[in-house]
Records
---
Amino acid sequence: MLLEYLAIAVLIVLATVVALIAIGLGGLFGPKKKTVNKSMPYESGMMPIGPGTRRMPVRYYLIGVLFILFDIEVVFFLPWAIVFRQLGWFGLIEMVVFVAILLVGYVYAWKKGALEWE
Amino acid sequence: MIPLSWYLILSAALFSIGLFGVMARRNAIAILLGIELMFNAVNINLVAFWRYLDPTIMNGQVFAIIVFAVAAAEVAVGLALVISVYRNRKTVVVDDLDLLKW
Amino acid sequence: MPPINFNDIEVLLPLIILVIWACLLLLVDLFIPKKHKWLTALLAAFGLALTLGFTLSQLGSESNGFCATGKPSICMVVLDGFSVLVNALLLLTGLLGVALAYGYLKRMGIERGEYYTLMLFSISGMMLMAQASDLIIVFLALELLSLPLYVLSAFARSNSDSQEAGLKYFLLGAFSSGFILYGIALVYGATGSTSLSQIFEIASVGTSSLLLTIGAALILVGLGFKVAAVPFHMWTPDVYQGAPTPVTAFMTAGAKIAGFAALLRVFGSAFPNLSEDITPILWALSAATMIVGNLLAIAQTNIKRMLAYSSIAHTGYILMAFVPYGNPEVAPVSIAAGLFYLFAYTITNFGAWGVVIALEQKESKGLQISDYAGLRRKYPVLAGAMTVFMFSLIGFPPTLGMVGKFYLFRAVLSGGYTGLAIIGVVTSLVSAFYYLRVVVNMYMFAGEPKTDNEFWLRFTIAGAALVTVVFSLVPQGLFAWASRAVLKLF
């Protein structure tokens, strides 16, 4: 029964070994020249600006937290959408109630100025 | 099929790692991460039990979804509290929060 | 297509009204100018009173709500005498909480409308807990009541103590939720159901499974954290000391009631078969909580911290009532005594915290026990009320605390737990030492205590003192109500 998964195990081992060999060979035989440009942090080819561990404004966290709160509610929408036709009016009303509660939170955050960047 | 016990062992291990994180780390955010690990270990348990016991009764899955949502709400409150403490005390290390005897 | 079932709505009617009210209050408060936050407090109190009215109108009715299609025995929520009683008690707690908070928030400069909204949300969580008949609802209610409490503990934003208390409460609260959750998952695994009645049925036919026992034990640990039972009490003194005092008052009563409601619902209806394993654990928890709480309270000089340890000790006394929960002959009387004690503790507790609030000054001043010196000379009524509360917490007559302890010890003795009753009596005697120290400070020493004249605060203190004394003379009606309420549970 477990043998079905043997192929995956072999794949994992093989992939690791190949990768290790490639990196090892490169490190062993490749030329090593350290230049300023090479030791710079990689930022998609741009010149890096400022230190890497720059502090984010605290607003960023606020927006992030609000995003999590409203984003996670999608997990309730998805199962609801799947059985939407079977649930009929009952499901629709339930969802309206749910969205209304979310909306209360949204209006509150809005009025409190949590969505303004400045 | 993979036996149920494997999932349970995975979940127990994850829960223990989270528990260790809560006990051993001194940074409030790291403790929060540990708690999240514990919650997610439970989710694995719930979904595994649902699949192996009676897949026609959706209790386990629905519970897992609810745990997601609750965990998100908890993180939101937790991070807000951490930020608020940081503003006051300039630290998030729980050992330094010693105004009250711990 | 499931039809819309109005019975479901009826079962949860008070709760639904409270939640809608809280949501609306959150929005309305946005448009109330800063100077007129008394309006928010008034609206919150009105919502609570309205809900209390609807709750009391449910008296005597029994019903299940949100049941599985075709299986009327598997339900998410339940309405019975117990839930009505506990809900009424919780709403009373909320009203007292609003009354204590109103003047305090203004005096401390932390008056914001969210306070009342958060409190309403927390109470709705507690009420849901009292009506839960499914582990999913138990968890949901637990989080709904805890999350607003975390925020409330940290409500004084510029006060480092309060911030620290909020963070500590949050970290340990979330930690304990993890335990409860894992326990629920294991119970679900052992029985294949999350419905409390289903779990009971499945558990009673098969042989006792280890998975189920471990799950129940983990749930017990988590709930032990929530009600602050020793050895899970470490967070309690810090949080109760750091949080704004009205929040502490609300937490000590409300969170305790909800926690015990959960304990009773989960263990009473799902795990009576496990009582052989669970009862000794409860016995040890109760004994340890009484001993440790009372002994540590002696060393305290800060009144908030002292009352925090006193609250731990009282958790021990109430836990006593739950020890024989699996024995259907003793359990109803015992649980009824526990409920009565919860009522007595709630009233006394709010009164005592009210006096603390009356004497507290800005920047956590006026909170030492020595600050109570000279209270009798300057404010004899306040000192008299505090004396009543201290007597009630010890269990001296003529107070509710004495009657509560009498019922409790009698029930425990009739259950055959003599050792536990002896520990209870001895620790009560020990507790007299630190409670009476406050009284001695008020009456014997000279000092210059200060207090502001706040109508609602004084009204609450006076009311609590009056109820503490008067109801101790006629407790039978209340006890009979509690007995009727729990009878159907067993």
---
Amino acid sequence: MKKVIMGNHSLSYGAMLSRAQVIAAYPITPQTQVVELLSEMCADGTLNAMFIKVESEHSAMAACLGASLAGARTFTATSAQGLALMHELLHWASGGRMPVVMGNINRAMAPGWSIWTDQNDSLSERDTGWIQFYCSSNQEVLDTVVQAFKVSEKLMIPSMIVLDAFALSHTYEVVDVPEQKKIDAYLPPFNPPFRIGPDDPHAFGGLTSPDHYMELRYKLQKDMEKVPALVEETGKEYEKLFGRHLGQVDEYLCGDAEFIFVTSGTPGYTARVAVDELREKGIKAGNLRIRLFRPFPFEKVRSILSGIPKVAVVDRNISYGHHGIFYQEVKSAVYGQPHPPAIFGFIAGLGGRDITRDAFKEIADHALSRSRAEEEIVWIGVKK
Amino acid sequence: MTKERKMTLTIPREELMSPGHLACQGCGASLAMRVALKALGQRTVVCIPACCWAVIDGPFPHSSLDIPIYHCAFETAASSASGVKAGLEMVGDTETAVLAWAGDGGTFDIGLQALSGAAERNEDIIYACYDNEAYMNTGIQRSSATPLGAWTTTTPVKHYKKHPKKDIIAIMAAHRIPYIATASVAYPEDMVKKFKKAREYKGTRFIHVFAPCPAGWKSRPEDTVKLARLAVQTGYFPLYEVEDGEKWMLNVKIKERKPMAEYLKLQGRFRHLKDEEITMIQNEVDARWERLLKRCEQ
């Protein structure tokens, strides 16, 4: 059934269709409607779940982990400061192999207080062992929740679904809300290989000596490495049932491109308008939108960017003292590869400043007028 | 001919804690767990945050308990237990008791927010704090459960703890949870009774267990039970219950309280105290005892 819903409600519907059993959450702008709708669904019985209305994001994640360990499918959502408060437990989730699925609405970190979008909140959690998906439409948000449960529960690794504040969270779009029974056919009930309970008592997460710790981390990495193929496989399966492919990346006119914008999140849509305009002028432009950020889709990115003369990576984030984070990652993916492209790094749109069509024009002008990057960061639209 | 008196053992024989654990000699916390589990039984899941018990249980892949353990983050005993309980219910297990088992640091300090949240929601969990009155696992640093006058590695003798310990029971009573009790390793029958009682209740139950620590208190391992008993007999750690935050009941009535000096002198952590400081401590205990008696009379 098609509905006109906001991005936040896409997360709620995704959790509902996935039959989340325990939800623990704490309100934070711009995430609030996610949990408001879920609490209504729990109250009216649309969703058979227990909603734990905790006193902080730290407790939200702690409660999710306890529930996940007991064998329940578990969902939460947060933003920015809330995600940062959860940080300790993000490591707990992946280290303890608890496949919680969480929506994170990208919001810039304070100070100064900001409720507007940028990616420094979720990218600060890059190394916590979570799978990270970046979405660019409300439809993709809903679909990704369902896919994320499937991927997470198969590998026992938690997933974070990331969407831009306001540009998606509060923007209404037409979304196809799939039938429950079709989702049930795609996503079986959570049946973990281990769970906490008195019938088979074990100690989970106890003191681990140097003799054992490294093997636990090795196994986590080895399972992380299985994610890209599993995303492709589950994405194709989803496409068969629902007609929408959910891959590691999303390509737009990359096949014959000589110049590619690499983006993540909603700026990808704007980039495509710029691509069309460049093509009208005879420039073979394309857009590569990175959907799966962790684990990084090395193979995909390499195969698409190999042989492309110029690539502009647009980052709505920054690693202070280094560069844009997607820029670093793309560079590391193509390093040492045959025919690597000239890669240009741009930082734009921090703290919710719009990344406009003109911004993409400026980015294209900069990259197309130079044979190689003269500086690691080109700031777009900053008042210097 | 004297009348034959029949002794009834009120402490279950079942042992859910095995020898070979990593507790120090004379550890009150290990004794507390052993007794608590005898009362709660095998169908219990325990959430243990960072505390001595995170280690006592034994390193991976060993465990000294015959019940499942979730080793959770320091400040999450109550929130983790809330989640485990919800998760178990959603997978159809409504019988298993979920126990949060935290030290005083994890309860009085870093875990207080999560505990308050769980208590306000009246989560269906048993929260037990075994109180050894400092961060013993990290090397005897003061917590807000450290008593007035005590030496710790962060309250050196020249600057010993100047404030009395936080009144955790009053805080929990203010949440009006169904059941609160204090218990002591020197009174195992009383402790078993309280944990059994707690298991029968629904909602948040809080049990504050007094657990001497020879390593941190600089006391002799063989004095652990003696010290725990003296703490009750002096009125320093009275044994009582609070139901619904309102009904206060003293369980072990003490006609003539022993002087605090008797309790303090067995512990190296109080060795620096001068007579007037011991009087100050005595006065604090006296005032607290009177307050408790009034509450219990109401």
